[in-house]
Design goal:
The complex is a heterodimer. Chain A has a domain of 189 residues: Glutamine Phosphoribosylpyrophosphate, subunit 1, domain 1 (4-Layer Sandwich), CATH 3.60.20. The model of chain A has no long low-confidence stretch (mean pLDDT 86). In chain A, helix 4 packs antiparallel against helix 5. Chain A is an alpha+beta fold. The longest helix of chain A has 22 residues. In chain A, strands 1, 6, 7, 8, 9 and 10 form a six-stranded antiparallel beta sheet that branches. A five-stranded antiparallel beta sheet of chain A has the order 11-2-3-12-13, covered by helices on one side. Chain B has a single domain, classed as Glutamine Phosphoribosylpyrophosphate, subunit 1, domain 1, CATH 3.60.20.10. Chain B is built from four helices and 13 strands. In chain B, a hairpin with a 3-residue loop joins strand 8 and strand 9. Classes of the chains: A alpha+beta, B alpha+beta.
Chain lengths: 275, 215
Amino acid sequence: MALSNVLETPAAGFNFDNAARNTALEGLFDGGQTPKPLKTGTTIAGVVFKDGVVLGADTRATSSEVVADKMCAKIHYISPNMYCCGAGTAADTEKTTELLSSNLTIFSLNSGRNPRVIMAVNILQDMLYRYHGQIGASLILGGVDCTGNHLYTVGPYGSVNKVPYLAMGSGDLAALAILEDGFKPNLELETAKELVRSSIHAGIMSDLGSGNNIDICVITREGVDYIRPYQESQFKDNRKMKYKYHPGSTAVLTEKVVPLKLEVVQEAVQQMDTA
Amino acid sequence: MPNLGQQISSKNDMIPDWTSQEVSTGVSTGAAGPWRTEAYIANRVTDKLTPIHDRIFCCRSGSAADTQAIADVVTYQLGFHSIELDEPPLVETAANLFRASCYRYREELTAGILVAGWDRRKGGQVYCVPIGGMLVRQPVSVGGSGSTYIYGFMDSNYKPGLTKEQCLELTAAALSLAMERDGSSGGVVRLATISEDGVERRVILGNQLPKFSTH
């Protein structure tokens, strides 16, 4: 039973050890500013349609007021039939989803079965609850397995919601408004993609933390279509990307040459064996 | 400790416990809809009635993450216990398992739970496990942030010996009244009737709720 999972099931009961460690760490800074983790202001959304699940995300990663990454990938691979969008602290979403992906791969190899979405949800909920909200990851998990098409959201405190359509992140209110208006059960593929695209677009337009391009990931029984980018931002700047200056562009004012004195301390010759 | 996670403090529910000649002993439980993350409704159609065993349900209020975790733990423990004994578990056992977790970790948890079900020994029962980890059996119980608005209603309208239909009507009416007044309650009303014959679940959508306000 333990072999199926690298993540060892911890001892029974709730484990709040890390919460104590974190308060102790805060004490180290003595009232000063504790380091702030990089958060991706984000808009992510997901919709269950007739044949599967469509996930969408923007591609902006911010570090306070500066855009740190214009083409950040927020839709993470979990397994061939499951992808996960992450909002919150960038490092947390990245590592949590990687950990989940490794665990499910090991499970697949051990049992010879495709992982189910509910398994991923349980592992995530277990882990996030154990860390009592200290891992800042709000995840939208979508996938298709033998039991059907599923879309779940897992909050940073470990709460789980199963819903047919969903948006998370700082731009979620705008995105959810579009989803609430346009969602119907059993949508067709193109309608579902357009709905997710316009909801992410609404998030990008209305939220400062979201922006740049839109990524879409379509998961069906047949396979996965990861379209990156699905829609590019109209506001693109022209960057040369190569900053090479010809010799002589900068004037040399003074020149000073200092030879480095090297003494030979030891010299050894070793013959190489050649056959 | 400030709890910034998802709250289901909106929940309010009531569980009358009745015996009657017409209807086999059982319990009806109800719970109202949305989950709250501060001012944002994370899910407006949450299901707060969680099955713990075949004939035992729990109603969850407080922190969503905490109550989901506790319910999962108790479901496991109760399932194991039931398999060991090779017979259906008692509602009192389930309630005690909840109490054990809620009391031991009372500093870290925010969970108000109502445990309700049917077993052969005592029939329909309702146990209240509020924040702090008390355990008490009651004929009728309400919980959650909206429950404060309906204590008077329940006190005056509940009588022992109601039929199943009367209980369901009473529950739905109480929940509607609470949802009307409490900002954190709303969405849909979920009802479950648990008896010897099994569990019957019903959903009353927002527009089908009984209307009370005249202004």
